[in-house]
Amino acid sequence: MTLYEYFDRIAIIHLPERRDRFESLSAELRAMGIGIQHPKVQIPYAPRPSDANGFPSRGVYGNFLSHLGILRQAWEDGLQTIWVLEDDAIFSRRMCREQAALAEKLKQCDWDLCFFGHSLTHELANQPTGLVPPNGDFMWAHCYAVHARVLSRIVAYLERAIDLPVGHPDGGKLYIDGAFTLFRRFNPDVITLVCNPALSLQKGCPSGLSEPKWYDHVALTRPLISLARRARDQWWKLRV
């Protein structure tokens, strides 16, 4: 069984003008045996809010709304499982090789949230490889899955987080990965799994959530930075 076969839907967060990211993720999915035009793959409309609504930026707010919209739709559609990808996700060679084992593990065990990509590294050094429970907070929400058991709860939490003021102890107007972190803290019964080691990373490219760095504007440095980012991505894919 492949991950495509296991999940009811694969939803991609993508802005149409980022054709470079679309082509990159298409290639990443092809390596996994998944065509981006397959029926299970959906690229829903990406919200473009007119203001930041108290979030760190309009991009952060729009990204938050995209994740919320995808999860809300999955809940309303009665899906059992959904895999959510941001369009800058890349996969290690190991994920391609071991996706059958990952799918079988998810099929056989109880889980609510599963993060194929995350920021944990040395924290998992004493854990076995494969899907394991995390032993601390972590960042990133570019490649994760959600089970029906927790969909309604996480949708309700994210909806409330939009209305809460910045700095509220329950979490208000956060980056999406920060909201997920607080959700896990407030709901310790939720079964979270992460890949050890992380099998997905965010592609080296300018972020859509904040202003580009100065070197992304300078014609002389832009090609060098792009080359360095591609080299880093390829090195990571082979190393993991």
Strand tally is: 9
What low-confidence regions span 5 or more consecutive residues with pLDDT below 50?
A: 213-218
Tally the helices. Answer: 7
Gyration radius, rounded:
17 Å
Q: Sketch the topology as an H/E string, one letter per element.
A: HEHEHEEHEEEHHEEH
Major sheet strand order: 2-1-3-7-5-8-6
Classification by helices and strands: alpha/beta
Please state the overall shape, judged from the principal axes of the Cα atoms. globular
**Helix fraction bin:** 40-55%
- β-strand percent reads 5-15%
Give the rounded overall mean pLDDT: 90
Could you characterize the architecture of this molecule?
This protein is of the alpha/beta class and 240 residues long. The chain has seven helices and nine strands, in the order H-E-H-E-H-E-E-H-E-E-E-H-H-E-E-H. The strands form two sheets. It has a seven-stranded mixed beta sheet with strand order 2-1-3-7-5-8-6. Strands 4-9 form a two-stranded antiparallel ribbon. Helix 3 runs antiparallel to helix 5. It is globular, with a radius of gyration of 17 Å. The two termini are 22 Å apart.
Q: Summary?
A:
The chain is an alpha/beta fold.
Structural topology:
Elements: H1 3-6, E1 9-13, H2 19-31, E2 41-42, H3 58-76, E3 81-86, E4 89-91, H4 93-108, E5 113-115, E6 130-132, E7 143-147, H5 148-163, H6 176-186, E8 192-196, E9 200-202, H7 222-239
Parallel strand pairs: 1-2, 1-3, 5-8
Antiparallel strand pairs: 3-7, 4-9, 5-7, 6-8
Helix pairs in contact: 3-5
